[in-house]
Amino acid sequence: MVVVLDTRPGKDLRPRHPEKANRPETPLLRKPEWIRVRAPGSPVYRETQDIVKKNGLVTVCEEAGCPNIGECWSKKHATFMIMGDTCTRACAFCNVRTGMPEALDRAEPEKVAEAVAKLGLQHVVITSVDRDDLADGGAQHFADVIYAIRRAAPGTTIEILTPDFLRKPGALEVVVEARPDVFNHNLETVPSKYLKVRPGARYFHSLRLLQRVKELDPNMFTKSGIMVGLGEERNEILQLMDDLRVAEVDFMTIGQYLQPSRKHHPVIRFVTPEEFKSFETIAYAKGFLMVSSSPLTRSSHHAGEDFDRLRAARRAQHQG
Fold first, then answer.
1. Which positions make up the binding site for [4Fe-4S] cluster?
2. Segments forming the whole domain that contains residue 280
3. How many structural domains comprise the chain?
4. What is the CATH number of the domain that holds 131?
5. What are the start-end ranges of the H helices in 98-191?
6. Any idea which positions bind [4Fe-4S] cluster 1 (predicted)?
């Protein structure tokens, strides 16, 4: 099926991916058994859905078509996507709408904070679209959301998954000053794939962003993730791990790329669970405090449990 219009309930019929409309269609590979997931629908899932809708919020769980939405929402875990549902970038892997975003909702920080409190979240993940149209890339809005959650739910730990703030001097400092517990920025793929997969971004800028977080606050946990199955070579993944360790990144995630439509970048291959386990073993050997590597791993999947393990790993490291 070609996804050109956004036909989900409550959405208008603007082109969801106008920049992909004229791209040639690519085949959708049949998913192996290990990548299958159950359809969502539990009572707790619907309760989470209602809270999200009543607060007028956007989640990356829905917008990016995450395969883990049924599991996460059934545990009242949702990843909030701030600054709208329209991204200024056009990455070849992403299912988030592309176009010119609307103005920021100044009430959004309080809405997100209210939802976090209602859901009783112990750990929350906040991400966003890219907002290249804003002078600071949305950095102050990120900070405002963090501050609002601290007021409404002081016991909740906060993880952010940010854009790269490319050509936005001073933006990163604003976000780090708000002191999230985890700063996540995904490299997404190896350098050789950036031109086709992530054309609006720059690999070494993203790497430097993560390194700069540690320079600003050495105690802040940093995290980054990649997708595999895009045609990368094994040695490229191992080199990327080394690059992240040089930047002192604490936590790495590795998951299988899943093609949203025939207009998106094709899945070159499905990486086996055994290969994911091998990547996990190697990443731990390279010094990461935490590694999540499996076909269905996503940046915010099991984020709360992983954060607890991350803190425990740091304590053990210091005691050792």
1. 61, 66, 72, 87, 91, 94, 300
2. 38-319
3. 1
4. 3.20.20.70
5. 108-119, 139-152, 171-177
6. 61, 66, 72, 300
